[in-house]
């Protein structure tokens, strides 16, 4: 079976981009993962690769695809984003609201949403629960953006791990929200199991496997997943859904 990991990062260790990409590719080989989507950092300089570095890497490695990282705090170069997408050198754009101090409804993001919606290119959104028990971004904020831009595919990375079931209930019913399992299969995966049993009934074509390597350990994740979803459902989660959403044609 073909396996596509829809959420990868270069390791923060390794001497340079070439060395880091060798480490990543060796890890994919170790787990028989055929293709990977590598997500860039949103900052000007990064140990896990800037957008330019990840785009260049994906241009060299046929198995890898790039997601650009942007931030309204650093200023978004829309010209660069649009050109890179049009040249098919990246397959998505990621925002880190909460992780960085801005919200999804920041007016500076509207031109970005319009560019992505026009092209039907996915917007990836970092989601999490803060230590004081707050969902960031709030699921209703994601829901408002998804409703306002109905042709914009919105990928919720990490599915608000920690209180996933409650959070995803808020965006349930929105046809353009996708659920990406990054970090949920690391360690204790009971939450992932109950989330998957809900999602595979309600949105079986919008669930994506992502490991969040090298932020997370990849070992054991695929084994856990294969016990939770079987047959055609597994093929969808591990490959078909992401291949279709990101239009990778692999
Ligand atoms: Zn990540």
Overview of the structural elements:
With 250 residues, this protein is of the alpha/beta class. The chain has a single domain (4-245), classed as Metal-dependent hydrolases (TIM Barrel). Helix content is 39%, strand content 15%. The protein has helices at 17-30, 51-60, 78-86, 110-119, 139-148, 164-171, 190-202, 221-228, 231-245, and strands spanning 4-8, 35-39, 64-69, 92-95, 123-126, 128-129, 135-136, 154-157, 177-180, 207-208. The strands form two sheets. It has an eight-stranded parallel β-sheet with strand order 1-2-3-4-5-8-9-10. Helix 7 (190-202) links the parallel strand 9 and strand 10 (207-208). The two termini are 13 Å apart. The model has no long low-confidence stretch (mean pLDDT 96). The chain binds zinc ion. Zinc ion binds next to loops. Zinc ion binds at residues 7, 9, 39, 182, 212, 215.
Looking at the overall shape, the CATH architecture is: Alpha-Beta Barrel
- Shape type: globular
The radius of gyration computed from the alpha-carbon positions, rounded to a whole number of angstroms, is 17 Å
What CATH calls the topology is TIM Barrel
CATH superfamily: Metal-dependent hydrolases
Number of strands: 10
Assembly type of the shown chains?
A: single chain
Alpha-carbon distance between the two ends: 13 Å
* Helix-strand sequence: EHEHEHEHEEEHEHEHEHH
> Which structural class matches the secondary elements?
alpha/beta
What is the spatial order of strands in the main beta sheet? 1-2-3-4-5-8-9-10
